[in-house]
Every structure is written in C-alpha cells, then in structure tokens.
Amino acid sequence: MNLSKGYLLALVGVFTYLSWLLVEPFVQYVLAAVLIAFVLYPLQGRLEERVSPSIASFLLILLAVVAFFLPFLVVAGLVAEDAARILENADTGALGITELEQTIEAETGISVDLTSSLMDAAQGIGTTVLERSTAWFSAFTHALIGLGLALFLVYYLLKDGDDLMAWLREMTPLPADVQNDLYTELSDVMWAVLAGHVLIAIIQGVIAGLGLFATGIPNAALWTFVMVILALIPLIGAFLVWGPAVVYLFATGEPALAVALAVYSTVIVGVSDDYLRPIVVDRYAELNPAVIILGVLGGVYAFGIMGLFFGPVVLGALLATIDVVDDNYDRLEGESGTTET
Questions:
Q1: Which is deepest, 100, 231, 314, 337, by most CB within 10 Å?
Q2: pLDDT digits (tens, 9 = 90+) for 219-235
Q3: Overall domain count for the chain
Q4: Do both 222 and 92 map to the same domain?
Q5: 234 lies in a domain?
Q6: DSSP secondary structure string, 214-237?
Q7: Dihedral sign, CA of 213, 218, 224, 225?
Q8: Residues with Cβ < 8 Å from 90, sequence gap 6 or more?
C-alpha cells in the first residue's frame, strides 16, 4: 500500500467515525426508518408507474403515519385509560389502609398514620418529578426531532432507493449474480422476521387479548399490549400474561371462565404459533426459534427497542451471508467484481 492509498483510507476511517458520532444519537430512529422504508418499498415501485417518485414517496409517508402512528396512538390511549383506572381504584379505601391501620394498632398498640406517610412519599416523588422535568423535556424534544428525522429518512429512502441500491452495487466488489444472491437472501430474512415474527406476534397478542376481554379480565387493553410485546419471544411470550389470568379467574371464583380462557388460549393462540408461523416463515427464510430468541434478547441490549426487530435480522443475515459465501467462495478466487446486471 502506497502513501496515497493509506492517506485516503485514513480519511475514510476518520470521516466514518465522525459520521457515526452524528448518527449515534438518533440510531433508533434511523433503524425505524430503514424498517418502514423496506416494508413500503414495493409499493413505491407500483406507485411510480402512475405518479412521480416524489409524489409516490409523499403518499406513502401519509400511509405510514396512518398505518403505524394512528394505531399506536389508539393503543396508547387505551393503555393510558387502563392505567388511569388502576390509579383511580388505588384510593385509601380500595387499598384498605384504614382497616390496616386499625389492625396494626389492635395487634401492637402502636398508632400509625399510613395515609400521612404515603402523602410524604408522594411529596418526595413530586419533588423528584420537578427535578427531573428538565431531563424529561429534553427527552421529549429529542423524540420529536427523532420522529421528524425518521419521516424525512423514509421519504428519501423511498424516493432515491433505486439510486442507493445502484450505488451499493457499484461499490460492492462482487459479481452481479453473487450480489443478486446476497440481496435476495437478506431480503428473505427481513421479510421472514417481519411477517413470521412481528406479524405473528401481533396476531397472537390480539387473539389472546380477545380472550381476556371476553372473560372480563381487568385492564384487558393494557395486558393485550403487553402480550403483543411478549409474543415477540417465541413459544413462551403470550403465556406469561394469559397463564396468570387463568389463575386470577380461579382465585376470584370463576372456574368456568378460567377453564374457557385456558382452553381458548392453548388451542387458538397455540394454533397461530404452530401453524401460521411456519407457513409464513417458510415462504421466505427458515429461521430457527433459537435464532429469534437470541436475536430478540440480544438485540434489545445492543440496539434498544428496535433490537426487537433488528436482532433476529442481524443473526439471520449472518446465516444468509454464510450460505452465499459457501455457494460462491471457490469460484470467486482470482475473480474481480463486476456491477453488470
């Protein structure tokens, strides 16, 4: 390597590092934008047959807002309503504080004022809230900026997606057919995770939530949302909610409803996992449940909330890349890359 090449590579390294510093504060939103753009990209191609790329991208941005954000707001409203109902029920009478004070005094002869203690604790919490309000405002502002950035990124990823893929192909030192295999494998992994992992988790959570609503479980909307998140963990996810719900029904003197919920959740929710997941996943790429579990749990630590989606994608992409390497490694020795298609 001569001095000129070394200098250029050093510049690439420096500017790559500086660019990462710029991206890192918003990496969650960048990953979300990539995910949304990937899902909407096939629609972009169809719309471009009728309108300009800019108009197509703008229409899909509106679709993304309606399809992704409005349901989120509805779910957030339901969850907040359930949380507010819990707080409303948590008054001193519902908690039995007065009776508890009388019991303690009868047993120990010591008079206690739990209500005052709780009020003091609440005042301490209020003080902490005020002290943290600046940090929370900063986080709220950061979230608004991140959402705006994500929308802009989705727009330009859709509008200039073809140019980006052409640039990637030009910069990738692999023959065109090998690149085709690689990108096809990576696309299959992405769709396998989205359709066979995320979509099935949503279906499972909603189906299980219908059982909670039907059997009168308190705060069913909140627990349905929790089950959707937990269902991202294969095999055991939704059970962590509907299992205790069955126990709750037995404990509250509703054995018939408990049995009905147990049978419904085991059969109907189980069918969605045992049959829908293999059908959807096998259409794209076969991902072992162990890969998904490791990807979900490790992804959360590595990427935050977006790791729920990108963790399995990273592991699946590794396996897909190894398959492409295994299929093409021998013939690539001594062969230079080409961008011909």
A1: 231
A2: 777 778 778 877 777 66
A3: 2
A4: no
A5: yes
A6: HTT-TTHHHHHHHHHHHTTSTTTT
A7: positive
A8: none
